[in-house]
Specification:
Blueprint lengths: L4 E5 L8 H5 L4 E5 L8 H8 L4 E4 L8 H4 L5 E4 L9 H6 L3 E3 L6 H16 L2 H4 L28 E5 L3 H10 L6 E5 L8 H11 L3 E4 L2 H7 L2 E4 L13 H6 L5 E4 L8 H10 L4 E4 L13 H4 L3 E3 L8 H19 L11
Parallel strand pairs: 1-2, 1-3, 3-4, 4-5, 6-7, 6-9, 7-8, 9-10, 10-11, 11-12
Helix pairs in contact: 5-7
The structure holds (2R)-2,3-dihydroxypropanoic acid.
Organism: Lentinus tigrinus ALCF2SS1-6
Pfam family, one: 2-Hacid_dh
Keywords: Oxidoreductase
Length: 338
């Protein structure tokens, strides 16, 4: 019998990263051999006897029973970990790695891109040819940057972690000086920390507020909180009805935070100007007839927040190094305390 440690990897991580695992003589590496979402049955069968498992966001990381007592570490190539059963991991002493930080800039970049795309109605303007007839106010919507006639812009963030703050930093050169955010109600407010962040990002106002105020005061609302039951449909009909008619909504977090039907209705009825959506509840099975795909002034992307070559290589490298650290009882570069 081989003394090698078995590891199962649910997607090929590419030529820059796979050698970290494949060239390690102490490992027996089993990789899902197709360029498609890893089949659950294959994963469960191959998990038997594994010491480490590396999964994507698309795979439920509940593989303990299939793997058996040999399992030491689960590593996910994602910053989100709602697919992992943290309580069970802790109970079984299984270490868990994820990929924070490396994707912050890519997702913040995309958040700004979607704010611009939603405000400039690229959904319709990129599909207009050959039927466009110019007129002075055709397709005019809100401007992201401040103007002499409209000098105040307020950004609202649902969730104010790393990606939200990186997004705020990108908004300051557009003239944003006001930042409101809503945070998990179980964490206490900390005005001194808010003042320090206002100074750090160079904005006049940075305040934690309730959702109602965030909805009614923001010119752009960025949804950047974790998924899960606590944030399910946090952007609902009530929230959308309270938004400014000129505002845009950007969701680069999780589809479950936004009630898609309510948002589609809001866009049809003009409760807000537009929406830029990178994540949709029920993804990736989103058809061309999905209410948001059909909604006016709504740009829908296929969850590509972190999809730049550098970032995905960074995430895959971190996930592989987390796996190696956990397998050999060493530090994991990004271990979640479960
Ligand atoms: C993550 O890593 O959780 C992101 O959603 C991927 O883009």
């Amino acid at each position: 019998m081989s003394n090698k440690l078995k590891v199962v990897v649910s997607r090929d991580l590419g030529p820059d990263v796979m050698p970290l695992l494949l060239d390690n003589k102490e490992l027996d590496v089993v990789v899902w051999p197709h360029n498609s979402v890893c089949d659950r049955k294959w994963l469960l069968e191959n998990a038997a006897g594994a010491s480490g498992i590396l999964v994507m966001l698309s795979e439920k990381a509940k593989l303990f029973d299939a793997a058996g007592p040999s399992l030491r570490v689960v590593s996910t190539m994602s910053v989100g970990y709602e697919h992992a059963d943290l309580k069970e991991l802790a109970k079984r002493n299984i270490r868990f790695g994820y990929t924070p930080d490396v994707l912050t800039d890519a997702v913040a970049d995309l958040s700004i891109m979607l704010a611009l795309m939603a405000g400039r109605n690229t959904k319709e303007t990129t599909e207009i040819w050959p039927n466009f007839v110019w007129s002075p106010f055709a397709f005019c919507g809100p401007q992201l940057s401040t103007t002499s006639t409209s000098p105040k812009r307020t950004a609202g963030f649902i969730g104010f972690g790393r990606i939200a703050q990186a997004t705020l930093a990108r908004l300051v050169p557009f003239g944003f000086q006001h930042c409101l955010y809503a945070a998990n109600p179980s964490t206490p407010a900390d005005p001194a920390a808010d003042a320090a962040l206002a100074a750090k990002y160079g904005v006049r106002e940075l305040r934690r507020v309730l959702l109602a105020e965030l909805a009614s005061e923001s010119d752009v609302v960025f949804v950047l909180a974790p998924g899960g039951p606590a944030t399910y449909h946090i952007v609902d009909e009530k929230f959308l009805r309270a938004m400014k008619r000129s505002a845009v909504l950007v969701n680069t977090a999780r589809g479950t935070l936004v009630d898609s039907d309510a948002l589609a209705k809001a866009l049809h009825e003009g409760w807000l100007y537009g929406a830029g959506i990178d994540v949709v509840e029920g993804e990736p099975k989103i058809g061309a007839d999905h209410p948001l795909v059909k909604a006016p002034r709504c740009v829908v992307l296929p969850h590509i927040g972190s999809a730049t070559t550098d970032t995905r290589i960074g995430m895959a490298t971190l996930a592989a190094n987390n796996l190696l650290g956990g397998l050999f009882g060493k530090d994991m570069p990004a271990e979640l305390n479960t």
